[in-house]
């Protein structure tokens, strides 16, 4: 994981939109600005990068946020709080533990509120589950993320949820072997290999 502090430039190594969302507020490295959702616009930018918000929806919400700044600030705070609870649940799952009753009860309420914004729509002669953008309002991105989180918890392979030992980011292991250790070999994996190499070399030189 490259240590960046903005929603525009953070790497998306989570393998699942909801895990990338959770990672937007966490980092193990000291002295690094870990919060990437400083404004409602940051939430929109990240949601668009995750494929949850298209260009038209992005513009509509940006305009609405400019008109309702207090509501936008509340929506951002809601997103951060849900992110914290998702981190509690997924980080425990990554350790092979149960999420715990308290975060699950909280998330149950979140999922229920998100479900209110889903509606059946006809597409390609089939009934599909659509999204009521008007009803969702400024919380739209959060409810879309909540939907992704519910799907992962309900239908995903929970044993594939991992936590990178290098940066503490969460990721979904989609490797064939099912033994992926790092969020990204290009960053955390190679960094740890380099550190081990120099530790061994230093120990050899000192002996």
UniProtKB/TrEMBL annotation:
Gene3D superfamilies: Jann2411-like domain. This is Zinc finger CGNR domain-containing protein. It comes from Mucilaginibacter pedocola. It holds the Pfam family zf-CGNR. InterPro entries: ABATE (IPR010852), ABATE_dom_sf (IPR023286), Znf_CGNR (IPR021005). Residues 161-201 form the Zinc finger CGNR domain.
